[in-house]
Design goal:
- Keywords: Membrane, Transmembrane, Transmembrane helix.
- This is DUF4367 domain-containing protein.
- The protein is of the alpha+beta class and 261 residues long.
- The chain has one domain.
- It has five helices and eleven strands.
- Strands 1, 2, 3, 4, 5, 6, 7, 8, 9, 10 and 11 form an eleven-stranded mixed sheet that branches.
- The longest helix is centred in the first third of the chain and has 21 residues.
- The N and C termini lie far apart (56 Å).
């Protein structure tokens, strides 16, 4: 039954992807959203057999589906959001103003980092946390800011939410800057076409928590997702990239965000 469900899910996504040609910026945003969902789920439950299905679209509503073990009610098992290209603004000043109007705060944003990576676009998105029965438990607003060509770096900011479980990734590096703790992580990803199957070696890595496998790409691709998290003034910050930036690079950039007055 599980095999049939997995195959059916992959076929549904393949049919949809055949009709959609996402741009690179939208794809990078979707990949980051997929990471947050997979990482959060890994932090609260153990997958006996995962089949993460990633639908990438220029105008994307992102969900994560899979075969999972049951957990107690009242816990968030998925974050759901919808992102449209029409919602993007291309001015840092305008994005800060939107945050003040919609979130009631002005999160710290850098215009151009010292390494030359500049603000490209951003948006304010409503995030909804649901339990395994799709009941809505919380909703909150999150600021997204994309930096560099094709949004190679992303800065996500939202107010701290007690109900959101912590991820399960191991800290690669930790630093303290101005009494703020910065934690750097990295996760290995394997993106596969909807009708592909991972090798036995990759399946074992996934079982051991050393690889995250997601479906929906047009070819097999391996990526390393690095990100730095920190908390400041009741807000949660996450600076991330699927690019070749190192954890040290992202920590240095995070410090520049903290320095914003």
């Amino acid at each position: 039954m599980d095999n049939f469900r997995d195959d059916r899910l992959k076929q549904i996504i393949k049919t949809g992807l055949d009709q959609i040609k996402p741009d690179v910026q939208a794809e990078n945003r979707c990949l980051r959203e997929i990471h947050k969902k997979i990482e959060m789920r890994n932090g609260i439950m153990k997958f006996n057999k995962k089949r993460m299905v990633a639908a990438l679209a220029a105008v994307c509503t992102i969900t994560v589906m899979g075969t999972v073990t049951a957990i107690a009610g009242g816990k968030i098992t998925g974050l759901f959001s919808s992102v449209s290209r029409d919602d993007m603004v291309h001015s840092k000043v305008e994005l800060v103003q939107l945050a003040e109007n919609q979130m009631g705060t002005a999160p710290k944003l850098v215009d151009t980092f010292s390494n030359g990576i500049s603000f490209n676009e951003g948006s304010i998105t409503k995030i909804e946390g649901r339990d395994e029965n799709q009941n809505s438990l919380i909703s909150f607003l999150e600021l997204y800011a994309g930096y560099g060509k094709n949004n190679r770096v992303a800065l996500d900011i939202h107010e701290h939410q007690d109900l959101i479980p912590q991820g399960s990734s191991a800290v690669i590096k930790q630093d303290v800057y101005q009494d703020i703790t910065l934690k750097a992580f990295e996760d290995n990803y394997l993106f596969l076409p909807p009708d592909a199957n991972p090798s036995a070696e990759d399946s074992k890595l996934e079982e051991d928590g050393k690889l995250m496998i997601s479906y929906g790409s047009d070819k097999e691709e391996r990526k390393i997702f690095r990100y730095v998290n920190w908390s400041e003034n009741g807000m949660e910050y996450s600076l991330s990239s699927f690019d070749d930036l190192s954890c040290d690079d992202l920590i240095s950039m995070a410090k520049e965000v903290i320095d914003v007055k």
